[in-house]
Amino acid sequence: MLDRERIPRHVAIIMDGNGRWAESKGVPRLAGHNAGMKAMKEIVKRAHELGIANLTVYAFSTENWKRSTEEVSGIFRLLITYVKSELKEIMDNNVRIRILGDASAIPRDALKAVEKALRETENNTGLQFNIALNYGSRDEIRRAVEEIAREVGQGKLAPEEITEEMIGDHLFTGKLHEDCGDPELIIRTSGEERLSNFLLWQAAYSEFVFTDTLWPDFTPERFEEAIETYQNRNRRFGGR
Ligand code: FPP
Questions:
Q1: Which of 62, 187, 200, 203 fits 136 for a cystine, CB–CB 3.0-4.6 Å?
Q2: CATH classification of the domain holding 223
């Protein structure tokens, strides 16, 4: 049973397996992403109901541009559909949408839809839903180093004054950006067991839950099971 008193503050998800799900059904890859978006909607709702403070999803990586133009534009069309069709429910649930990554490079119509959702949900105080878009963790760390190096160059900071906390603050998840901190739990679906350039710095102390379930089949019940797994692991460590 899920312990409602010990819900993780920040859960991050690598939503993997849309392509394989589509293949197994003999439908186009985009139909897999569409089913993936539906699964994502349900997880956002459940995260809200569970009182999770931050949910982060890996929606599009800096490496995903290598996919076909058709697939890339299809994913961004789905993003537009998501923010438009869900905005009312998102507002009703007091969810705040944030973006991790360099959104300036995404197609213009998608950026416009996202910016509208960011503006409209800005003052919501419930679940913060972070969508990693054109996100890569090495790129994120490189940007943080650049910002800090600039301060050093301007004489505002000595190199030996650089702290781990300062580096964390400069990441997209940090206090100077979307401010959601490190995830206690990272879930990856579809049987792959790697980080794929996601939250490398932030994952230092995260618990990992890997499941063979393909992302479109990942239900809110599975989500709760993953949280339960996390809680059981924690409980063991706490006993030591
Ligand atoms: C990974 O599956 C999934 C993606 C690269 C895209 C994730 C997109 C969604 C869940 C739906 C759209 C939602 C938004 C917010 C854009 P894969 O294609 O790598 O699957 P495979 O490894 O089986 O090929």
A1: 62
A2: 3.40.1180.10
